[in-house]
Design brief:
The protein is built from nine helices and nine strands. With 234 residues, the protein is of the alpha/beta class. The strands form two sheets. A seven-stranded mixed sheet has the order 3-2-1-4-5-9-8, with helices on both faces. The termini are far apart.
């Protein structure tokens, strides 16, 4: 399994760092998308300790750029890539608020990965328009959702001091940030507005049905409260 061979990622972050969960998500988010990652220039939004940037690199990406707001996680990502011997010209990690980075920088990428971030914000229009402006042909998206069958968003609060929540930015106040979980219909509607077609959705129910022992490691996926999409720009 992928992360069995890369155990540093269990030590450089306190967020969802169990090998079982990491390996299962790699199976869902990276393995089915090797065809678009191989030879691609990849932008990894909210890149954390570089775990998915590294997975994209190992899947054949020619260059990976990670954007992460928290300094210790950027340092961890750089350290992890160096420790695993990735040439320095194959990656770059940018510390900064991803909305500001998307607004101010020009990117020339083929694939954008937004894995585990969308439900930490309500700034969906800024996020999706920023991704659209990168010119990427593909978007890999993994997010928590509600099981509501109507296009609705459940609003909640993130604690910015918690590593697994939204980072502090200009919109946060008193160490709190407003966030939201969209329903799948709401998510599909928003993607459509910004010219993204959902080309595929990972079959979490089918995967976990065949491996009930993994259900605990993927509880949100098992209940339909998390989805993994592969999207193509129109």
């Amino acid at each position: 399994m992928f992360f069995d061979d890369c155990p540093r990622f269990c030590d450089t972050s306190a967020t969802a760092a169990s090998l079982a969960r990491l390996n299962l998500r790699h199976e869902a988010m990276i393995e089915p998308n090797r065809d678009i990652l191989s030879g691609a220039r990849v932008l990894d939004l909210a890149s954390h300790d570089g775990r998915w940037s590294f997975a994209a690199h190992r899947a054949g990406a020619t260059h990976v750029t990670g954007v992460e707001a928290r300094r210790p996680l950027v340092q961890a990502a750089r350290s992890n890539f160096a420790e695993y011997g990735v040439p320095s010209d194959r990656y770059k990690f940018v510390r900064g608020d991803l909305f500001e980075v998307l607004a101010r920088r020009k990117f020339d990428v083929d694939v954008v990965m937004c894995l585990g971030f969308l439900y930490h914000t309500l700034r969906y229009g800024e996020l999706l328009s920023g991704i659209m402006r990168t010119g990427a042909r593909w978007l890999l998206l993994d997010t928590k959702v509600t099981t509501d069958t109507e296009p609705r968003i459940w609003v909640n609060v993130n604690r910015t001091g918690v590593q697994s929540h939204a980072a502090k930015d200009d919109m946060s106040h008193r160490r709190q940030a407003i966030a939201g979980w969209p329903s799948v219909p709401a998510l599909r509607l928003m993607l459509d507005v910004y010219d993204f077609d959902v080309e595929g959705e990972y079959d979490w129910a089918g995967r976990l049905e065949s491996r009930p022992d993994l259900t605990k490691a993927a509880a949100a996926y098992a209940t339909g409260n998390r989805v993994t999409f592969r999207c193509r720009t129109r």
